[in-house]
Amino acid sequence: MSLVVYLAAFVFGMTSVLLFRRPRRAMRNPLTVSTCAAIVLGALVFVCAAPATLATVNELTGVPNFGAPLTYGMLSAYSCAVLVLLINWRGGPRERVRRRVLRTIAAYGLLVVAIVVLFVLAEADTERLTDLDTYYAGTPFMREMILLYLVGHSAAMLVMCHVCLKWGREVGGPLRTGLRLILVGALLDVLGFQVSKYTAVVAVWTGHDLDFLSTTVAPPMASLAALLCSAGYLLPSAVAQWRALGDHRRLAPLWSLVRSASTAPKPPTDWWQLPQARLQWREVSIHDALLSLAPYFDHRVRERVRDSALRAGRSPHESRLAAEAAMLADAARRAAAREEPPQTGGTYRLHATEVSGTGGLVELAEALHRPPGAGTASGGAASSSLTGSRTEPEEPHVA
Question: What's the number of domains the chain is made of?
Fold first, then answer.
């Protein structure tokens, strides 16, 4: 059993490592901090609950069953962290969020203190590593301690189920899928772990023996629930990283064209840099290069290619992207050849600089792959670099 529990703790803990890779930046984000705190405490619960850990703790302290209040206190801290995570996830005015977080911490802090006090008052001299809940279910003070930690954990999981159900209707994409995974994990915790524990304890009170629910059914249910919750925490971030990797690759043609004009610091080459970090560096460098190439923009090239693309039947948005790609390719050629900037006058903002995110840059990069059509040559390198773009129904923004 210890091996299964330790494996669940490892999976749970690795989730926090992936989310908390950059401590300085993460510490400025309460949502990231609370997420990692909840995951780390969840992993510690599994470590503390393993029979091998319980035996070691009892032996080191010299107190039989000392691992019980340690595990239950850690589980209560995890329940508190889950509620704090939900509070930060929901957001709102900073002062209101702060008050709710402090109230939650105070309530569960009192719960932990009560668990410790009840254990001290109880007579629990017989060490039990796997069946403590049912063995001491009828013992004064131990009975109350067991019921108290179960109620505290149930409250947190039920709130999590409610929040996941509510928010799951309001969001879409990977976030909705992540919320559904968390919901399934929370329901499995409630129905598989907690109901099993409650049933086994109540069976002792009524003179029946259903200890197997607490010792055999509940632990693997809790481990599976933790696995599903950690997958739900990670999924939105993993999808975002995957999309960032795709955008980073799609920006390669554009970066190859303008990189010589960029004066931004060189991006880090560390192998452990995640795709989002690499994409951010590439995006910043490309925007810097576009700024450097702006004086070389020849609006005659742009207008000529735009008009040709429109005559060829392209949409206004596609025509604009093709024209901007031609103008940019021509500007990069002029800059590389150290030619004088064209005397066309005026300023022009590329579509890619008018939209937030990397979508505009990706469209511009894709516009460097296909020619805009017959009779749209603009001379030099520009004529061989033009492309179409994504066929979106968006209307162009005319500068």
Answer: 2
Tens of pLDDT, residue by residue over 101-127, are 999 999 999 999 999 999 999 999 999
Between the CA of residue 317 and those of 114, 170, 258, 269, 302, what are the distances in Å? 66, 31, 22, 36, 13
Token pair for 1: 């059993």
Same domain, 164 and 288: no
HSE-CB of 107 using CA atoms within 13 angstroms: 19
Number of residues assigned to the chain = 399
Mapping DSSP to helix (H, G, I), strand (E, B) and coil, where does residue 397 land?
A: coil
Q: Which two tokens stand for residue 86?
A: 């939900």
Residue 14 has a pLDDT of 64
Strand intervals (E) in 279-333 = none
Tell me how far apart the alpha carbons of residues 75 and 81 are, in angstroms, rounded to a whole number: 10
Give the helix ranges, DSSP H, for 189-298.
195-205, 211-212, 218-250, 252-258, 275-293
Q: Provide the H-helix boundaries in the chain.
A: 2-19, 23-27, 30-49, 51-61, 67-90, 94-121, 132-135, 142-168, 173-188, 195-205, 211-212, 218-250, 252-258, 275-293, 299-311, 316-336, 359-366, 380-383
Same domain, 227 and 285: no
What's the pLDDT tens digit per position in 186-223? Answer: 999 999 999 999 999 999 999 999 999 999 999 889 88
Name the residue range of residue 111's domain: 2-242
Retrieve residue 368's tokens: 């460097």
Question: Which tokens belong to 388?
Answer: 């179409």
CATH number at residue 117: 1.20.1070.10
Query: 144: which residues sit within 8 A by CB, 6+ positions away?
Result: 118
Q: Which of 13, 76, 19 shows the shortest CA–CA distance to 47?
A: 13
Contact between 108 and 150 under an 8 Å Cβ cutoff? The reply is no
More confidently predicted of 7 and 351: 351
327: its two tokens: 């103008």
Share of the chain above pLDDT 90, in %: 47
What's the angle, vertex CA 168, arms to CA 357 and CA 16, rounded to 5?
A: 65
- Is the pLDDT at 384 greater than 70? The verdict is no
What pTM does this model have?
Answer: 0.73
Q: Which tens digit of pLDDT belongs to each residue from 21-56?
A: 554 554 556 777 777 788 888 888 888 888 889 999
